[in-house]
Amino acid sequence: MSGPARVERFPDSEADDDVVLRARGIEKQYGSSCGDCVELTGDDAGTNQCPTCGTIVAVADADLELHRGEVLGIVGESGSGKSSLAEILALELEATAGTVDYAGFEGNLLEADYQQRHRLRHEEIGLVHQHIRNGLTLSFTGGGNVAEKLLAAGWRHYGDVRERLTELFEATEVPVDRMDDPTSTYSGGMQRRVQIAKAIANGPGLIVLDEPTTGLDVSVQARVLDMFREIQREEDVSTIVVSHDLGVIRLLADRTLVMRHGRIVESGLTDRILEDPHHEYTQTLINSIL
Amino acid sequence: MTTTHHPETAQLSIDSLSKRFEMHVLSNTTVVGLEDVSATIRDGEFLAVVGESGSGKSSLLKCLYRSYEPTAGAVRYATDDGDVVDLASCSERTILALREGEIGYVSQFLEEIPRVSALDIVSRPLREAGVSDDEARDRARELLAALELPPELWKAYPATFSGGERQRVNLAKALATEPSLLLLDEPTSALDPETRAAAVDLLRSSLADGTTMVGVFHNPDVVATLADRVLVLDDGSVVDTVDVDAYLEGVR
């Protein structure tokens, strides 16, 4: 990861080459689907469950763009569809419909075949799972967890791998001398850092962070977010951060999408969303901050 | 960042700017923040915005920074590259790029990631703009010293700072990148007279370097020292735009 040069951003360049990811009409349904499910659900209907056939419309009509080096926040309550949307973009979940253009990939990313998916998930898209157990094998060493990702991307030389691991542990502020201890012996904060080290290991073009502060003590949350922000800026890596916590979104995201009942109900600059919320739901959300 | 100084050209031209808030939680009440506000700010000028609380001073600054989305009107801004951009309607990407490179905003309150030191907060925008770590920290130390923040606090976390100490960090952070346009919303409200004087000196030298400023200051002495002209707001509308001397005569 030899610090890619920062992309020059000119004030009125709306050039498409700045777009890393463009998603259109992303949809995910769970159920038999009667054909009217999307119409009968959503923000206006006040539910994500089809009243006719009971199908759950986790996400529908979701459009978004992500630019190079940008951090896009997705906020909403549980069941709003935010994690489903993020998992689809991270190729962890199959969509029912939709297209995703991804810089450097020919065709619809969502239709990538098994081999392409495998490669993309190891080299191009880093996902930091909400639940640490889904992202790490706790019986392996911390170094082993991260090395797994390097080996999948074709790293073979032992010395190179060790060197890279040291670099990644230092960047994510995990004590290098704990590298060969089982991950189960790490604190929650360290486990989250190892997950981040794993996600950035192969210099991905996209990182998806799902509820990055889940399970962390308040005192550790801020350090982890700050560490991530430093790395994100340094690598200029495009990021999607999913959280129900507006504090996390405020600290990390440049722009934010608000989701409810499986739909994006509002989007804008993060400070605009927080200070001048337009949608009824966003206003309620902002007014509910403790 | 190269800024050519043209005293007679408009850095910012506000044209019939309005902001209304639709409050869904209050059974769809509409609250008027700004109504048909127009003003021109010349390159390198300081425009003070005054008015009672609730008159729309902060709303105006937030509309210029796009923390509020204007309901109607235009804000033509001359960029460092020589383009003119309508801040009221340009893309979010454009706003983000301008915020990173040339438009700064300082509020009364410091909002930062907890457990990041004052020195890192102030030097970060410079580091992100590509300045080396050492150089960025040197510049941050210079600014914090000029604002008389005790050196023993430089490596501490601002969460435990007093309001005045936090405001100094906030101001130093905004000045570090030498923005072309600086929006100031009572950035010295919690400072004692001596520290306030230091802050005003720093703002004055930044003005001399060509930064254009739009500022809300409660203290008339600060307005007298910094402002070229004064925009008087009442109930979201412009009552008057006058030279600072005429304004001060009216106040005294």
TrEMBL record, chain A:
The keyword Coiled coil does not apply. Residues 40-286 form the ABC transporter domain. SUPFAM superfamilies: P-loop containing nucleoside triphosphate hydrolases (SSF52540). It comes from the Archaea. One of its GO terms (molecular function) is ATP binding. Keywords: ATP-binding, Nucleotide-binding. InterPro entries: AAA+_ATPase (IPR003593), ABC_transporter-like_ATP-bd (IPR003439), ABC_transporter-like_CS (IPR017871), P-loop_NTPase (IPR027417), PhnK (IPR012700). GO terms for biological process: organic phosphonate catabolic process. This is ATP-binding cassette domain-containing protein.
Automatic annotation (TrEMBL), chain B:
Keywords: ATP-binding, Nucleotide-binding. It comes from the Archaea. GO terms for cellular component: plasma membrane. InterPro entries: AAA+_ATPase, ABC_transporter-like_ATP-bd, ABC_transporter-like_CS, ABC_transpr_LolD-like, P-loop_NTPase. SUPFAM superfamilies: P-loop containing nucleoside triphosphate hydrolases. Residues 12-251 form the ABC transporter domain. One of its GO terms (molecular function) is transmembrane transporter activity. This is ATP-binding cassette domain-containing protein. It comes from Natrialba swarupiae. The lineage of its organism: Archaea, Methanobacteriati, Methanobacteriota, Stenosarchaea group, Halobacteria.
